Amino acid sequence: MRAPVLRLPLLLACLAALADPARADPPPPATIVVDAASGRVLAQERAGQPRHPASLTKLMTVYLAFKDIAAGRAARADTIRVSERAATQPGSTLGLKAGTAIGLEQALRAVVVRSANDAAVAVAEHLAGSEDAFAGRMTAEAARLGMTATRFANASGLTAPGHLSTARDMAVLALALKRDFPAAWPLFATREVAWGKARLPTVNGFLAAYPGAEGLKTGFTCHAGYNLAAAASRGQRRAVAVVMGSASKESRLALAARLLDRAFAATSSEGLMLAELGPQDGPVPDLAAAVCSGAVPGETAATPRVPPGWALELAFGRDRAQVARDLAAARRKLGSRLGGTPVVLLRPFDGGLRYRGLVAGLAQDKAVPLCLGLRAEGGEERCLVLPPAAVEAAVNDERRYRMIAARE
User: Fold this and answer.
1) Is there a domain that residue 17 lies in?
2) What is the pLDDT at residue 404?
């Protein structure tokens, strides 16, 4: 896998869907639900069919990290130095910069909670010296666990030649995580991760949507479609469901919920054991035309354009419409003194979302005196001066959030 090489094929596949609408019908997803205590398969369709795992890959990344920590080869307190390769990963990221450092514990939380590709590669390089070497370890570990149809080429799940798994194999991995590292299991139910001064919410909507949800992991790439490994409990019963290749976030969540409901309603103990379910031959379904038709993956057209320069933050709150009104009122109060361009940006905050009302595109010699003047007047509760780097960071916060929310 080398993601930059794959960007052109991804784009061509998406553009081809526009020219040939008949290709936009997605193939049916692969699914499985398993009783977590017995390992018995309660329902499955195409569970042995090869699929692109997308970010479900990160479950193995985390499994190997837990294994190294348990064996004393690594420690949660380890400091990871971020490489250029890790920092330039596409897709869902934490925004790590080359040369900076992150703790292994925090990196693992970012991998699970935010599905951060940069953090996943940083973890891989820290544990194995290179991502390629780590991918070799991932594949070997998959074989040891009985994931008979799984091969890994990277630590993040970006589409790559030969990087494949099955719904059955991902169920094996989910059960292995629960069995082998019970003390670490609560990580998969974590709702947010602290990064800098922000608290970034999970990208896993299953946690809030399904009663008794215990977590695991979402995944998305254009080729894979929408994937989900979901664990839940009801009373003394526990089950794991896997959906691979759904056409939307909503459909994968609804399908996983139906599978889990079926598991908890089951009264029969008949059916194959998970270990008895084998792989299937056949081509790997490609959902790019169906789920990425007409758009380049990762496009964030909904993020507003923000002119360069300094900015003033004049409003902040939970309700976007109210923030827009407060921003307009603040601009009217300043009148012709202000100028600039009004912009409302969203910001992940304390496990939820807030909105910030900015006036952007200002010169420093205007922004700073205006804010100081407002504060001196004592009638304005909100006035923060944002230099260009802070404005860029605010835009990137929204861009990353929209990209992740729209995909993972």
Assistant:
1) no
2) 54
